[in-house]
Design brief:
- The chain is of the alpha+beta class.
- The protein has 2 domains: about 50 residues, no CATH class; about 130 residues, Aminomethyltransferase beta-barrel domains (Elongation Factor Tu (Ef-tu), domain 3, Beta Barrel), CATH 2.40.30.
- It is about 15% helix and about 30% strand.
- The strands form 2 sheets. It has a 6-stranded antiparallel beta barrel. Strands 1-2-3 form a 3-stranded antiparallel beta sheet, with no helix packed on it.
- The longest helix is centred in the first third of the chain and has 11 residues.
- It starts with a strand and ends with a helix.
Length: about 210
């Protein structure tokens, strides 16, 4: 969350940011729009020796889901650090943005929604965002709703569709097979509850 005024390419004014969800080791460089093409060409030239490659926001979205990185779909104004599995990181001794909201009783139930990962039991099936999770054998209705998919994509690294989802008591349900349904579209498949961190969960690849 830092910013600095810099110059690039022999004097062009620019700004350097540490705000990207590309990762904790990533930077963003902003230049006037008319220099954008020249900037990316210079970056690619400088990165040749490191085998640098360009990628777009769709690829970025896939990689952040593979990494279990919560973004807009998971941070929708109804969730707190507890739902993300980060409740212990929020100090009870000093104030912070969202602290008061996070103390509401309705957000601190025993079966609170927790962020999990989902993989289809049949690798050929998709895992559409917006679908709902049901315990096998239960009726498909609001009273038995166990959670919902927030973000989904096809993972080329895993060779199947994957998703991030909020599931009641999800942190204690890994390995469970559930029904993923969408009554409006007739979608009904089985998925396995897994860790939200599909790729490099310990960060070894990141820091290699």
């Amino acid at each position: 969350m830092a910013c600095a005024n810099i110059t690039v390419c022999g004097g062009l004014r620019a700004r350097l940011f540490r705000i990207s969800f590309s990762g904790e080791l990533a930077y963003e460089i902003a230049v006037p729009a008319r220099y954008g093409d020249a900037m990316i060409r210079r970056l690619m030239q400088a990165g040749e020796e490191f085998d640098a490659i360009p990628y777009g926001t769709e690829a970025l979205g896939v990689m952040r889901i593979e990494k279990g990185h919560a973004a807009g779909n998971e941070l929708n104004g109804t969730t707190s650090a507890l739902n993300l599995g980060m409740g212990r990181m929020v100090s009870k001794k000093k104030d912070s943005i969202g602290s008061t909201l996070s103390e509401r009783s309705g957000l601190n139930t025993d079966d609170a929604l927790k962020l999990v990962g989902l993989k289809p039991v049949n690798p050929k099936n998709s895992v559409p965002a917006g679908s709902h999770l049901m315990t096998k054998g239960d009726p498909v209705d609001a009273a038995h709703d166990q959670g919902y998919v927030t973000s989904a994509c096809y993972s080329p690294n895993l060779g199947c569709s994957i998703a991030l989802a909020y599931l009641k008591s999800g942190d204690s349900r890994k390995g469970e097979i559930m029904r993923l349904v969408s009554p409006l579209t007739g979608f009904d498949h089985e998925v396995e509850v897994v860790s939200a961190h599909f790729i490099d969960p310990e960060g070894e690849r990141l820091r290699a």
